[in-house]
Specification:
Strand 2 (144-150), helix 5 and strand 3 (186-190) form a beta-alpha-beta unit. This protein has a four-stranded mixed β-sheet, with helices on both faces. Helix content is 28%, strand content 11%. It has a domain at 70-214: OmpA-like domain (60s Ribosomal Protein L30, Chain: A). With 223 residues, the protein is an alpha+beta fold. Keywords: Cell outer membrane, Membrane, Signal. It comes from Bradyrhizobium rifense.
Length: 223
C-alpha cells in the first residue's frame, strides 16, 4: 500500500494578533471582535519622545551643540493644518503630512470602536486614557501630534476614508475634553485603506489602527 494514498492532511491555523490601534469596520466589512491590547503610558512616552541629543564631541570648541534646524517646509505645513477640520484636508495635504511624519517618533495603538460607530469601545478606553496621560506628561506636553486613522482593505474607499476620519476625530475629542489638550496640538487625518501596514495581508487587523506621531518638539516648535 502506498503511503501517498493514505497520507495525512496537515491543517495549519494562523492566528494574527494585531499590535496596532484597530480602526475596526462593521462585521459586514471587517468585524469588530478582535481583542484589544492596551498600552501603557510609559510605552507611549518612550515611543513618542524625541531622539536624545548626540553627546558633545571633543574638539577646540566647547560650545553646546545646537539642535538640527527644523525643516521650513514641514513647519509651514504643520502650521497650515493645525486647527483644521479633518475632512477639510485635501488628498495632497494628507500625503504631505504622511511624508513629513514618516521619520518622526510614532506609535501604533490598538483601539476598537462600537459597531458601525466612531464611539470608542469600553475595552479600549484604558489605551486612550494612557495616551491622554502620556501627551500631558512633561516629556511630551506642548508638542504637536498627528493622529492618523487607518482601516483595512475591506469595504469601499469612500466608506473607509470617512470612517477613518470620524474615528481619528473621536480620539481627538476625547483627549481635548478629558485631558485638556489644546485642540490645535492635535492634527487629525484619515487615510482609509490607502496605507496598509501589512499590504500582504490587506484584511489583517494590524492594518486597522490609529497612528500617533510627534511632529514637533515642544522646545523648538513655533506656535
Amino acid at each position: 500500500m502506498r503511503l501517498a494514498a493514505k497520507g495525512l492532511t496537515a491543517i495549519i491555523s494562523v492566528i494574527t494578533i494585531g499590535a496596532a490601534l484597530s480602526l475596526t469596520l462593521p462585521p459586514a466589512f471587517a468585524g469588530d471582535d478582535g481583542n484589544s491590547k492596551n498600552v501603557t503610558e510609559d510605552e507611549i512616552v518612550r515611543a513618542l519622545a524625541p531622539a536624545p541629543k548626540k553627546p558633545l564631541t571633543r574638539g577646540l570648541s566647547i560650545a553646546p551643540q545646537a539642535d538640527p534646524a527644523p525643516n521650513p517646509a514641514e513647519t509651514k505645513l504643520i502650521q497650515s493644518v493645525r486647527g483644521r477640520a479633518t475632512r477639510s484636508l485635501s488628498s495632497t495635504e494628507r500625503e504631505e503630512i504622511a511624508s513629513a511624519a514618516k521619520d518622526k517618533p510614532n506609535i501604533d495603538l490598538e483601539i476598537t470602536f462600537d459597531y458601525n460607530s466612531a464611539d470608542i469601545s469600553s475595552k479600549s478606553l484604558p489605551s486612550v486614557q494612557a495616551l491622554g496621560r502620556a501627551l500631558t506628561s512633561p516629556d511630551l506636553k506642548g508638542s504637536t501630534f498627528v493622529v492618523a486613522g487607518h482601516t483595512d482593505a475591506a469595504g469601499g474607499e469612500g466608506y473607509n476614508q470617512e470612517l477613518s476620519e470620524r474615528r481619528a476625530d473621536s480620539i481627538k475629542r476625547y483627549l481635548v475634553e478629558k485631558y485638556s489638550i489644546a485642540a490645535t496640538d492635535l492634527v487629525t487625518v484619515g487615510y482609509g485603506k490607502s496605507k496598509l501596514k501589512d499590504p500582504n495581508q490587506p484584511m489583517a487587523e494590524v492594518n486597522r489602527r490609529v497612528q500617533v506621531v510627534n511632529m514637533e518638539n515642544k522646545t523648538t516648535a513655533s506656535k
